[in-house]
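# step 3/5: fold
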Amino acid sequence: IIYAYDITQVGSAGVLIIRGVSGSLDNPIALITYPGSKTTLTATNVGYAWGIANHNKVEEHWVFSKLTVRADGQPISAFNYLRAIGNDLSDQNCAESQAGVFSTSEWNCNKNIMFGNYIHDFGCGSTSNLQHTTYFSNRHFSGQDNNCEAFDFGWNYLTNNEARAGIHIYDEGWCGSWDGIVKIHDNVIENQVGAGIDFNVGCSVGWEMEIYAHVYNNIFVNAGLAQSDGDQNCPAVVLQTWQASSDAGLEGFVKFYNNIFYGFGEPSSTETGDRVFLMARNLHSLGNNFDFYWLNNIVVDTNDFEYFYNPGVQYWVDPIISSNN
């Protein structure tokens, strides 16, 4: 364990760069703010900047806890077997990159665990659609089909984020898959631009994202907002594939249960087609072997918006099981 005591560190593109040092499953390395003190890491570059960077994406088994980190690109880079616990995370100027507060790819997506983080005010009205509040992907830039161990995202508080999509699970091209159960639970997501949560793929034909996800005990308040510059809003919950082929979609299941959704959509929007709560659609299907469950959820409309897209126009896909909502 490395304790940080009353440290304030400022850098440009990267503040703390982890290079040549990894922990192990039995002996992870932990950087923790000492009780009663404060550690602040600030990356000043506009756009591409990292608070804590994983050099060449090869280091693993690190724990970061009780740190205050500000960076426009990625406050904490992904590590295989990352533990990020109780951190205060935001941008410094205006979030802009192709990442998120947490963001994974094929090199560093194994069993990331993120608990109890305060993720706030990340993004602004000009943040592009390529930058998200969080961004979970196993994209195979190398073209090799390697699965990653599922991530666990729980007890986090996301508020007032203008980077689109609070919990963004997306892949495209050579899509990768996840082993085990992805758990998204006990989070609060409020005042979120774009979807509160989405499972969204644009895989090449012959590639699918296999995922088995449980989404439960979360509270979403006012998800699906527009950016302050007037960018169109988005449904609060999205399941979507972009290819017309069922061989390029989702595989596995997503189970939503025991969640509360209070308010959705952008009240000032004129994009009536987007002023809905739930979007589950594809030109063909969500995938060859994909099931969508919707159980014990509470949805409260505060803006007199529709619950879902017009099935005849937007290729609506029904949940395989829907009850007690």
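# step 4/5: annotate
The helical segments are 311-314.
# step 5/5: archive (pending)
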